[in-house]
Specification:
This protein is an all-alpha fold and 196 residues long. Helices cover 50% and strands 0% of the residues.
Length: 196
């Protein structure tokens, strides 16, 4: 059936025939090629058109059935950056730079009314603004350590500060009031607990 060669006990080049999938799997392991992909049915290799995670780079949809099943199963999961468990993919979040970036993002999101009030677009702008702020602070540290700033560094600093201002203006420079009005059910249940 699928994935097997025709049944024959005659060895090919001194090697007994094995299921096609097994041969290709072990060959890929032996060659240890990152991004190596072989179609289980045809035996064709697509190493050049597939990336390290066996996804087509050129936008094509040529995947074997097992690969397609694995990728479609994983599409429902969110990335670590999206679900908030990582600040940047593949970066240690304990560095000074990453901790400062996280603090700035949290401060800006709080100013915008909290996580529930911020849209995905605003969150993206806040992240870029926080990155520019961290880099501007690094430049200021260099200026302070040297006791001066070169004209080129000062020009870069001014242009970066202007870009930061534009990003911050697009999300608003004023702090948004957070709605702290209690829900009627919570209010009634809190009163009933106090009176009991």
């Amino acid at each position: 059936m699928f994935g097997f060669t025709e049944s024959s006990a005659a060895p090919i080049c001194g090697v007994r025939k094995q299921p096609l999938f097994s041969r290709l799997f072990y060959e890929a392991q032996r060659q240890n090629l990152k991004g190596f992909h072989t179609d289980d049915l045809t035996g064709e290799s697509y190493g050049a058109t597939y990336g390290p995670h066996e996804l087509p780079i050129d936008g094509g949809i040529r995947m074997s059935a097992p690969t397609l099943a694995v990728t479609t199963g994983k599409q429902t999961h969110r990335s670590r950056v999206t679900n908030g468990t990582a600040l940047l993919a593949g970066v240690d979040g304990r560095s000074v730079w990453a901790r400062r970036l996280r603090d700035l993002i949290e401060s800006h999101v709080s100013d915008l009314g909290g996580n529930d009030a911020v849209t995905a677009a605003e969150r993206s702008i806040v992240r870029r603004a926080a990155t520019l702020t961290v880099e501007l602070e690094r430049m200021e540290t260099v200026f302070a350590g040297a006791g001066e700033a070169s004209p080129e560094a000062l020009d870069l600093y001014g242009r970066t500060a202007g870009n930061l201002r534009r990003l911050l203006e697009s999300v608003g420079l004023q702090r948004r009031a957070r709605d702290v009005t209690p829900d009627l059910r919570d209010y009634v249940s809190a009163i009933s607990v106090e009176t009991a």
